[in-house]
Amino acid sequence: MSILKNLKKVHAAVVAQNTTNDLSPIGTAINRAAMAAMFGGLGSNDWNSYMATFADNEEQLQRLTVRDANEEPYITQMRAYILVNGCCDIGTNAFMNNKVDEKIDGIAGSNKNPPVPDAPNDPNGKIANLRPADLKSIPDVNV
Fold it and tell me: Domain coordinates of the chain in residue numbers?
């Protein structure tokens, strides 16, 4: 699944949990992981762990965890929004506020923002094992 679809999946799970809980356990876990990532900074284990929540393959994880000197400025900005949205609202409803869009997954023919594959590819569980313990599995929600 794409990075954007993973963000939407997390958002939908939080919204669904908010209908039956005072606070979504997933939203709370996202907030906790995002705060650790913020204090750890880009490249830290906490950053990589948080961003692994939204990645299904190594290329996606690279997009979310490694700043390329040649990348488009909007990639840097979207990466920052993914982080701060988890920090600012425990309900994480800010993920879908038009600050992160399909460009996070790349643009065909772009040298500065090449597409990353959307197919899950984590045969040894490296990415899944990076995720915070309470975010290893996000349920699919039909909305």
Answer: 3-133
